[in-house]
């Protein structure tokens, strides 16, 4: 493992990625990727693309290898057992969601979204013409919870509840009891769940990721799960996600209608994801430990430099949800911090109405740059 603290702003800019090129002169803390490179096994997998001349359509052998790797990874890491035949591929989680809405849900049924939420879920609703019903999360001094009564009121037969676990952008990792309570509401309303578990490998002890569909036969029957190695193993540009269908009815429909979605995963992404799941556990453990240290550093920096900010350390992800309303802020935070602090963050309002006065801050930065980013934000306030 390289010395992550020594990664410089200049070296990140030189790579030319979106995180460091979209807002020239600003530290990149908005888009959800890390600045720490990739695991050695992933790099070798990408060399294999060239060595094997895999520039055509994906051979069935590498698709089968990834399905097997996904099943084994989920069994080992979460205790979730399912046959590899339950896995399908996609380019990314949002493409998966679009496909599921199109093929597995009745036309015109609404999307019910606990907020604050990952920004593209709002775009999916706009693209598909579905009604999107925001259900603001309930925040206490110690954590977040879903407003079950509001979810119950919003759901109708055929509606899709979006569950993001770990929850982007607040970093909540749902407990078994919370998931079971939610499942009762979903089943009572004859609705279904799209479970976005893309951040699942990035969870900090003592929190533990529990796949929603793994709870019981009921959750398995009304859920489609989407995941990927893109966040935990830092390969979002390789375009490969995994859909896990625990419903026999869903699998049957997908076999007839889902080919355009499942055929969109890239060869580099397939090979890299297989290497991530089968060869890169030590790398992930080291990165998770570094991110946990960043979370602790961020907590200290906020207490020192932004005492009027409210922050609950996330149980998973490398995203921090910062409430800056104590500084009299409401909207325009992204523009303000980009122009005044030269730090690029995500405007909280993009994550739902509840996000006014908040920002989503990516703390997967080298620690010197993380420190500088918070100091700059504090100075701009």
What would you note in describing this structure?
With 381 residues, the chain is α/β, with parallel strands linked by helices. Helix content is 43%, strand content 15%. The chain is built from 15 helices and 15 strands. The strands form four sheets. Strands 2-10-9-8-7-3-4 form a seven-stranded mixed β-sheet, with helices on both faces. Helix 3 runs antiparallel to helix 12, helix 4 runs parallel beside helix 12 and helix 13 packs parallel to helix 15 (367-380). The longest helix has 25 residues, at 281-305.
Number of helices: 15
Q: Roughly what fraction of the amino acids lie in strands? A: 5-15%
Spatial ordering of strands, largest sheet: 2-10-9-8-7-3-4
Shape: globular
Helices and strands, in order, run as: HHEHHEHEHEEEHEHEHEEHHHHEEHEEEH
| Weakly predicted, low-confidence segments | none
Tell me the number of strands.
15
Structural class: alpha/beta
Radius of gyration: 20 Å
Helix content: 40-55%
Give a short account of the largest sheet. 7 strands, mixed
């Amino acid at each position: 493992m390289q010395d992550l603290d020594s990664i410089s702003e200049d070296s990140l800019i030189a790579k030319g990625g979106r995180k460091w090129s979209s807002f020239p002169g600003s530290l990149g803390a908005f888009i959800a990727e890390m600045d720490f490179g990739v695991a050695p096994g992933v790099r070798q997998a990408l060399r294999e693309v060239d060595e094997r001349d895999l520039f055509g359509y994906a051979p069935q052998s590498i698709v089968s290898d990834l399905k097997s790797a996904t099943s084994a990874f989920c069994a080992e890491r979460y205790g979730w057992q399912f046959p590899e035949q339950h896995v399908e591929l996609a380019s990314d989680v949002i493409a998966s969601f679009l496909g599921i809405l199109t093929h597995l849900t009745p036309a015109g049924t609404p999307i019910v979204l606990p907020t604050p939420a990952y920004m593209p879920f709002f775009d999916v609703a706009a693209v598909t013409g579905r009604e999107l019903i925001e259900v603001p999360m309930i925040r206490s001094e110690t954590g977040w919870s879903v407003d079950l009564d509001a979810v119950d009121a919003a759901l109708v037969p055929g509606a899709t509840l979006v569950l993001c676990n770990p929850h982007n952008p607040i970093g909540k990792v749902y407990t078994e009891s919370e998931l079971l309570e939610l499942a009762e509401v979903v089943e009572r309303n004859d609705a279904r769940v799209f479970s976005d578990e893309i951040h699942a490998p990035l969870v900090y002890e003592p929190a533990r990721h529990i796949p929603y569909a793994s709870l019981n036969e009921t959750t398995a029957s009304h859920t489609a799960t989407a995941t990927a190695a893109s966040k935990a193993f830092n390969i979002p540009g390789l375009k490969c996600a995994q859909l896990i269908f625990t419903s026999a009815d869903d699998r049957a429909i997908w076999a007839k209608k889902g080919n355009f979605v499942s055929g969109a995963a890239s060869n580099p992404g397939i090979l890299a994801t297989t290497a991530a799941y089968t060869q890169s556990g030590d790398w992930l453990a080291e990165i998770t430990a570094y991110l946990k240290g960043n979370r602790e550093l961020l907590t200290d920096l906020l207490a020192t430099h932004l005492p009027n900010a409210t922050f609950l350390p996330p149980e998973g992800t490398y995203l921090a949800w910062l409430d800056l309303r104590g500084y009299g802020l409401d909207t325009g935070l992204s523009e303000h911090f980009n122009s005044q602090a030269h730090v690029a963050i995500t405007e909280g309002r993009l994550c739902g109405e509840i996000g006014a006065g908040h920002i989503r801050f990516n703390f997967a930065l080298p620690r010197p740059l993380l420190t500088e980013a918070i100091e700059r934000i504090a100075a701009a306030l």
